[in-house]
Design a protein that fits this description.
This protein is an all-alpha fold and about 110 residues long. The chain has 6 helices and no strands. The chain folds into 2 domains: about 35 residues; about 80 residues, no CATH class. The chain is about 75% helix and about 0% strand. The N and C termini lie far apart (about 50 Å).
Length: about 110
């Protein structure tokens, strides 16, 4: 394995395990991007959730974004509202997939619930 391959492998493992050093850099970039957007933390978080739905993001992305949204005062009702608002645009199939991932990220993944 080359040095470059080893570096890439190490970085990928750090990203996938949410290594604090790597995450700190990503959070710093997020803060800079949020400030540049001119949006409040709440608005920024809701837009980011909408973007994740639009690109059919990974479960880990939803978990991280929901945490950020909650830290910025976004309610469960507002997250549901994002799904309702996006449904005509992205389609019902994508909303069903996103709802499953968001429900898990929001702590609603209880098998006993209907």
């Amino acid at each position: 394995m080359t040095t470059q391959s080893r570096d890439i492998s190490t970085t990928m493992r750090a990203l996938s395990s949410m290594d604090p050093d790597i995450m700190e850099g990503l959070v710093g970039a997020r803060i800079e991007n949020m400030e540049a957007s001119g949006l409040s933390g709440r608005e920024y978080a809701l837009v980011k959730i909408a973007g994740l739905v639009g690109i059919d993001a990974s479960p880990a992305s939803y978990a991280w974004q929901v945490g950020f949204a909650k830290e910025n005062g976004v309610t469960d009702e507002e997250i549901l509202g994002v799904l309702v608002a996006l449904s005509p645009t992205v389609g019902h199939a994508r909303i069903v997939t996103a709802a499953t991932e968001l429900a898990f990220a929001m702590g609603f993944a209880d098998d006993d619930e209907p």
